Amino acid sequence: MTNFKITDEQLASSVKRLGNPGSTALLHSPCCIFCIPQVDGIVGYQLIRNCAVVFGDPVCLPQDIAELTQAFHLYCKESNWTIVYLLASDSFAHWAIHNVCHTLIQAGEELILDPTSFQKKQNIRWKINQSLNHGVVIKEYQNFDPSLENQMKNTIEAWLKARHGAQIHLGKPDFFLRHANKRIFYALKEEKVIGFLGLLPIDRFQGWVMTTFLATSDAPVGTTEYLISCVLEALTSENCHFLCLGAASGAKLGEIVGLNTFSRFFVHLIFKISKKLFRLDAKQIYLNKYYPYVVPTYVLCSGKLSFSELIAIKQTLNVKL
């Protein structure tokens, strides 16, 4: 068993071929890589003090999950590290809680759409018309254009600087992952870039993950709705049946395993405070207009959830107060 660095191209290939929607976070955050020779797959994690924080499930085929995960847990045990999984899938979470983990908390949801079945509701059509009336145009970035890329990067930096208040995120938006088979859609108004939407492929689901979408503060009403609508139309024309709109917190915590009464009360309290402080439900409220179906995601811990693991989660999520 080994822990080593792989190239960006190898990481992107593994995520594309073998990952689930949560695995795409590995492409936006610096991470360590674990693998074993007998399995085609990796575990991507950040090491914070003595806690390995894993993004999503181990990246491998379902039949290799047990072997790769057990090898990773043995490696961490020999290193005296605990393990936390963020954005773990339902199937992996329930396998793990019976085999390698002590604590399970259903703390989020992935929002999924079948583009071919989507129908615009009246409120979305109204917002799209607002952006059209202001001259907004949506295009897909297909051919290398350094001038356009510089304008896009400047827009992203301006958007990031304009953000204020309490924030939480897994990584910095990066639309120009040269090593990833990404797609970029962008919004223009009077030849000025005012919005973006990025997609990354996941072959196991024969679809795409919407990694980031944004619009500048001066963008007309309906710009993001127009972006998402154009993406859905493009995927429909390609007969794509899977689009993950991203992960959201959910209205409340769900299933909890491995915590006593006091610890349950404490994590519920932390969730309620975080939801209010970081407006964790804002993304889901916005995306609910597309009527996605939801798939639960989980936080897992190899041992009891302690203050050390909470600090590691806080640092991984780049919490800014």
Would you mind describing this structure in some detail?
This protein is 35% helix and 28% strand. The protein is α+β, with helices and mostly antiparallel strands and 321 residues long. It has two domains: 161 residues, Aminopeptidase (3-Layer(aba) Sandwich); 134 residues, Gcn5-related N-acetyltransferase (GNAT) (Aminopeptidase). Strands 1, 2, 3, 4, 5, 6, 7, 8, 9, 10, 11, 12, 13 and 14 form a 14-stranded mixed sheet that branches. Strand 9 and strand 10 form a beta hairpin.
How do you describe this structure in short?
The protein has helices at 8-18, 65-78, 90-99, 122-133, 146-162, 223-237, 261-278, 282-287, 307-316, and strands spanning 2-4, 32-35, 41-48, 51-55, 59-60, 82-88, 103-113, 137-141, 183-189, 192-202, 207-215, 243-248, 256-257, 293-301.
